[in-house]
């Protein structure tokens, strides 16, 4: 599939069990790297992530954390490769440093952990902005949005070990998709790509291949998304947060249908 070493590596010497017995084999496995975020030379967070689409990751993470309000407020971005990992080195306007200080985290550890090391429990359940009214969608639109993900999942097709977040719009189809070993990272990358391309999250469906936790609802709301759909069920806190923000949350979206958990008025019929 033309994967780069930054995206996936070949794991050889494995043993495979099939119906006819054991056989030797190999498989592409996703790359995973420590990625640090710094702003104006001030270290902020470390995430374990797939080292692809890093500019999107930097932008989306910064927006989701409220460090910047628009992608344009990141005045400069450098991707620095080191023997230990990758630094996403950003420069933001001095006026945004106050927001940075309020969101200081110490993130280091499990892949894609969205809430590790929060200094205040209140940050984990922080209030969200009300999402826009958005547009009404037909049930067939949700089915089409979810069906569009798998053919575009290049990394998952090769490794069977990746999450994806995509944006689908009626009449236009799948406009953006990003993958990562962490579902939070995949959504941050999608948010960054959409912000950089000027895509309006309220104009369609944010679709994901994972369960929906509260962190994903928080990120979707900050994107301005109005409909978040996923293949698995949400958590109770995710439902509470989605309802409060006015976000339509759809889960268990499979070939045979889906379930609408909050704000069903955006679905026709």
From TrEMBL:
Which residues are the active-site ones? 113
Record key words, sorted: Cytoplasm, Molybdenum cofactor biosynthesis
Q: Where in the cell is it found?
A: Cytoplasm
Gene3D superfamilies recorded:
3.10.20.10, Cytidine Deaminase, domain 2
User: From which domain of life does this come?
Assistant: Bacteria
Q: Briefly, what is this protein's role?
A: Required for formate dehydrogenase (FDH) activity. Acts as a sulfur carrier protein that transfers sulfur from IscS to the molybdenum cofactor prior to its insertion into FDH.
Give the PANTHER family listed for this entry: FORMATE DEHYDROGENASE, SULFUR CARRIER PROTEIN FDHD
Task: Give the family, as the similarity comment puts it.
Answer: Belongs to the FdhD family.
Protein name as it appears in the record:
Sulfur carrier protein FdhD
Question: What gene is it encoded by?
Answer: fdhD
């Amino acid at each position: 599939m033309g994967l780069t070493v930054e995206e996936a590596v070949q794991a050889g010497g494995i043993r495979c069990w099939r119906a006819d017995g054991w056989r030797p084999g190999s498989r592409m496995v996703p790359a995973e790297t420590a990625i640090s975020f710094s702003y104006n030379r001030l270290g902020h967070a470390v995430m374990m992530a797939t080292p692809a689409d890093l500019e999107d990751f930097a932008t989306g993470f910064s927006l989701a954390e409220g460090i910047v309000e628009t992608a344009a407020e990141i005045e400069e971005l450098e991707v620095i490769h080191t023997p230990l990992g990758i630094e996403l080195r950003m420069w933001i306007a001095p006026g945004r440093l106050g927001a940075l200080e309020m969101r200081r985290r110490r993130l280091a550890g499990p892949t894609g952990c969205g809430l590790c090391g929060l200094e205040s429990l209140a940050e984990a359940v922080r209030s969200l902005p009300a999402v826009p009214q958005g547009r009404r969608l037909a049930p067939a639109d949700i089915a089409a949005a979810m069906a569009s993900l798998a053919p575009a999942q290049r990394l998952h097709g090769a490794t069977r070990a990746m999450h994806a977040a995509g944006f689908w719009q009626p009449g236009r189809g799948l406009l953006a998709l990003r993958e990562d070993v962490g579902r939070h990272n995949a959504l941050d990358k999608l948010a960054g790509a959409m912000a950089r391309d000027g895509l309006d999250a309220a104009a369609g469906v944010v679709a994901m291949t994972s369960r929906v936790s509260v962190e994903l609802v928080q990120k979707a709301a900050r994107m301005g998304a109005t409909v978040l759909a996923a293949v698995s069920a949400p958590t109770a806190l995710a439902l509470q947060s989605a309802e409060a923000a006015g976000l339509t949350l759809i889960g268990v979206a499979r070939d045979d249908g889906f379930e609408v958990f909050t704000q069903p008025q955006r679905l026709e019929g």
